[in-house]
Specification:
mainly alpha, 0% strand
Amino acid sequence: MDINFFVMAACFCAYFVKGIVGFANTIVFTSILSFRYNNINISPVGLWLGVPPNILMPIKERKSIRLKKWLPIAAIVLVSDLPGMFLLKYGNASTLKVILGVVIIGIGLEMLDRQLRPRKSKGSKKLLLGFGALTGFINGLFGIGALLAAYMERTTQSASEFRGNLCMVFLVDAIFRIIAYTCLGIVTLESLWTAVRLVPCMLLGLGAGMFVSRFVEERKMKLVVIVVLIFSGAAICITNLMR
């Protein structure tokens, strides 16, 4: 993937959103770039960009990390990663983009429901298995872990516990996917170099988002992001179905 204004803008927007609402950077990054690039070129770059935050956050929130919270779901996610990875490697690019559009719409609707009707769950084994398996498949395919965030938000008691345990799963998953993507030829030195060159855009977007978050009500901004995601998912589906 060449570094150009479109790619830099996508990276800035993705981490600007993360700076404001604390999530959705991968969905934003992937959905914007999907209008011009294939997912096999997007996922490894997004994977590399997500590693530093997932290392720093567990260190910061280490007192709130609970092995029994993150280890079971991490194990399910890793197993479920594999089918998604093989589909990313060998699937049809246009078909994958339609799947991505449907995934983004579904995640957007789930996030909207969560915002309008916040609730906690005790985290049943069936819910754990369902969220873990679906998250792993989508993660292996697109690098999107928003469904896992939805599960963690329902089963953790504080923002610190949520961030720490969620990022532990993402960190373990990232290490596994880097190894597996490399074996499949998806991760290359070129993708790593692209991610390194995008770090300034990532930091600028993150800093700008954190600054703006001081003046914007978080809940309203989350709703705006969710609506934009739903419409972008629909646009991706329509654009690729018409081809």
